[in-house]
Amino acid sequence: NAGVTQTPKFQVLKTGQSMTLQCAQDMNHNSMYWYRQDPGMGLRLIYYSASEGTTDKGEVPNGYNVSRLNKREFSLRLESAAPSQTSVYFCASRMMTTGTGNTIYFGEGSWLTVV
Amino acid sequence: QKEVEQDPGPLSVPEGAIVSLNCTYSNSAFQYFMWYRQYSRKGPELLMYTYSSGNKEDGRFTAQVDKSSKYISLFIRDSQPSDSATYLCAMTVQGAQKLVFGQGTRLTINP
Predict the structure, then answer these.
(1) What is the DSSP letter of A85?
(2) B 52-111 residues with CB < 8 A to A
(3) Which of A6, A85, A2 is nearest to A44 (CA)?
(4) What is the rounded distance in angstroms from the CA atom of residue B16 to the CA atom of residue B38?
């Protein structure tokens, strides 16, 4: 059972370049999320999607776009990368039912460096 | 003031010690409380899940929730070097799309 799979795992970009982080989950979860994690800042929510076809901004959406392609896939796009976007990015998914359905499951992370 | 406060540490203890990790929160509506463990260069993984107040035990790990004090704890008994990781607390309300995470506490267990 793969869970949440995100690619690529490592990427180096030049300032101004664009790229897309891909994420797929095989748990039939309704909600999907993109977080960034920086030293001393904890996890910060970039965007989330409550269901296929819907997306909403989180705490730090500027400079990012997302697409919920279908129930399984949720991609994050950097249109013009900036050094401030150097970070570790985590995709996550959640069932959104009662009880343990409130828990969130994370991918392994994507390490992005913008030079 | 942050909605969830967690001491980032670092916390360093000898092997075999009892470890106590804590979070405080301000939103009395939170009902679901989680602890995640994150090893270096890995994604967070769910460690413990608790609904409302009370204790929950799983092996060497015990999660406690005190809603009256808005305080949650994770205890690790007989700590092992393999417990060295960052521990994040998280909490939410039924039906809410977003979870609120603590900053994480970096824990090192010394052999």
Answers:
(1) G
(2) 88, 90, 92, 94-95, 97-99, 101-104
(3) A85
(4) 20
Tokens 């994370």 correspond to A106
CB contact at 8 A, A87 and A34: no
| pLDDT tens per residue, range A1-35 | 579 999 999 999 999 999 999 999 999 999 999 99
Using DSSP bridges, classify how beta strands B61-66 and B71-76 pair: parallel, antiparallel or unpaired: antiparallel
Task: Write out chain B's pLDDT in tens, 111 residues.
Answer: 789 999 888 999 999 999 999 999 999 999 999 999 999 999 999 999 998 888 999 999 999 999 999 999 999 999 999 999 999 999 998 888 889 999 999 999 999
Contact B8 A40 (CB under 8 A): yes
Rounded to whole angstroms, the Cα distance separating B74 from A66 reads: 35
DSSP per-residue letters across B24-70: EES-TT--EEEEEEE-TTS--EEEEEEESSEEEEETTEEEEEETTTT
Q: Which of B17, B7, B6, B5 is nearest to B84 (CA)?
A: B17
Coil, helix or strand at residue A56: strand
